[in-house]
Amino acid sequence: MLGTILELGAQDHMSELARQSENKTLLLFSQVYRGMSVLSRQPIEKLYQVVLDYVKIDSSLTPEEIVASVTLFFTELFPLAYHHSADISDKDFARDYKECLRKSIEIISPFGDIPKQVAQSLSKSLEATRLLLQAFRIGSEVLNTTDSLLIEENGSSNSECHGALVKMTYCPKCSGGHKHAKPCSGYCLNVLRGCLSKYVAELDLPWNGYVEGIESLLSAVKRGGNEAGVNADAVIRNLDTKISAAIMHYMEKGKDIDIRKEPVNRKQQLKGNKLEGRSYATPNKGIKDDPSSENKTF
């Protein structure tokens, strides 16, 4: 029962954390990167949905799928960031040109190493969290199985232990009453030693090892700045900051990114449809090269 409570509690905590982080990220785009706010919503929601699915009980997702989801998110973000910084007024890129940008992201590397860092930290921390949830489940199953075996083997077929266990159930001391309660002071321990000693001896070493393992894993998951990089709380809480850092990296390094070699004619990059609810600053050339732009609302 306790293992199940811990498992569900940890899962609910991670789910709530992911939802809060998603809201922070959406708010970031609506306030700071308004030009990308509308079209970035779907990629953001898709990324966080994978995070939510990963920490669900019985999830079949793999760490590799987390990495792929993060990679896809930044791939979808690149055309938006480039469009946002280009001198194209309120018109969108042509579909073929967007696809060209997506395919060239590994060569251009517009966001630096940030996508790779996010993918690695998120996959490692979520996997550690899922291992913790699975460990809680295993512990719960072991306790339930052990409890059933004890009841069966010390039931009516073993009248002496059965009677002692029944008496122990009604003992004020054993049920959490006053520690000096009589006539059963010390009775609980005597019953456990007499009826359960062989089971305790067999389970003591492996169970203590299990508890120590849980404590170590829990400590690693909760500890900030750990070398293992498995602090899921910190990784998810800072996800919006990492995404913003990636965009700022692009804004700062945009003028050094050479995409003019792409076999796409500039005149064919745009299509005539205006984008509802979106407005763009009009820099002098394709990429913003005003170093003060990082202090502005984009």
Automatic annotation (TrEMBL):
Where does the protein end up?
Answer: Cell membrane
What spans are recorded as compositionally biased (Basic and acidic residues)? 286-298
Question: Which domain of life, per UniProt?
Answer: Eukaryota
* Pfam families listed in its UniProt record: Glypican
Looking at the record, which segments are called Disordered? 260-298
Q: Which InterPro entries match?
A: Glypican
GO terms, biological process: cell migration; positive regulation of canonical Wnt signaling pathway; regulation of protein localization to membrane
Main location per the UniProt record: membrane
Please report the record's description of how this protein sits within the membrane.
Lipid-anchor; GPI-anchor
The entry's keywords? Cell membrane, Glycoprotein, GPI-anchor, Heparan sulfate, Lipoprotein, Membrane, Proteoglycan, Signal
Q: A cellular component term (GO) from this record?
A: plasma membrane
Does the record bear Isomerase in its keywords?
no
Q: Write out the similarity annotation.
A: Belongs to the glypican family.
Q: What does this protein do?
A: Cell surface proteoglycan.
Listed name of the protein: Uncharacterized protein
